[in-house]
């Protein structure tokens, strides 16, 4: 079955390790700092900083074909019907190791407790970010 690209955008997710995702889509949903954004063909050009959150892509090759990607912040640029997400790290749902993510969550929770006991705000903040990343990966994997 040929894909209908007449209403499609291209979605690319890039990290320092390379391209994590590159497909055509009808709809891209990201969590920007200011709230959730839905991007479709011919959307106005935009640059938006992203939260540590799930990115959802409704692909053109099936109405029920949606990809879920755990993105750890970064930013999204959209212009000329191409959405490019640049992030420090990103993982597709199918490649997330759930047990590894759960261990990362447990480590972060312990680090937060230890840092708070020592009143170490910097370490507590870093551990909070690690916890957000782990929870995001777990959430995406369980979709």
UniProtKB/TrEMBL annotation:
Alphabetized UniProt keyword annotations: ATP synthesis, Cell membrane, CF(1), Coiled coil, Hydrogen ion transport, Ion transport, Membrane, Transport
Main localization (coarse): membrane
UniProt-listed CDD domains: F1-ATPase_delta
Gene3D superfamilies noted in UniProt: ATP synthase delta/epsilon subunit, C-terminal domain, F0F1 ATP synthase delta/epsilon subunit, N-terminal
Coiled coil region boundaries: 98-125
An example Gene Ontology CC term for this record: proton-transporting ATP synthase complex
ATP synthase F1 complex delta/epsilon subunit N-terminal domain: residues covered: 10-90
Signal peptide: none
Bilayer topology annotation: Peripheral membrane protein
GO MF annotations in UniProt: ATP binding; proton-transporting ATP synthase activity, rotational mechanism
Keyword Cell membrane belongs to the record: yes
Compartments reported by the entry: Cell membrane; Endomembrane system
Source species, domain of life: Bacteria
Domain (ATP synthase epsilon subunit C-terminal): residue spans on this chain: 95-141
Membrane listed as a keyword: yes
Similarity field: Belongs to the ATPase epsilon chain family.
Function field: Produces ATP from ADP in the presence of a proton gradient across the membrane.
Protein name: ATP synthase epsilon chain
Species whose genome carries this gene: Schleiferilactobacillus shenzhenensis LY-73
Record lineage: Bacteria, Bacillati, Bacillota, Bacilli, Lactobacillales
């Amino acid at each position: 079955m040929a894909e209908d690209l007449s209403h499609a955008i291209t979605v690319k997710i890039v990290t320092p390790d390379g391209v994590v995702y590159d497909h055509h889509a009808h709809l891209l949903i990201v969590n920007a700092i200011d709230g959730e954004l839905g991007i479709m063909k011919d959307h106005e050009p935009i640059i938006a900083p992203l939260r540590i959150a799930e990115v959802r892509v409704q692909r053109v090759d099936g109405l029920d074909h949606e990809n879920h990607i755990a993105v750890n912040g970064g930013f999204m640029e959209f212009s000329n019907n191409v959405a490019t997400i640049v992030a420090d790290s990103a993982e597709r749902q199918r490649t997330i190791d759930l047990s590894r993510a759960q261990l990362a969550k447990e480590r972060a929770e312990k680090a937060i407790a230890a840092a708070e006991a020592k009143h170490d705000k910097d370490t507590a903040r870093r551990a909070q970010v690690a916890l957000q990343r782990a929870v995001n990966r777990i959430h995406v994997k369980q979709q």
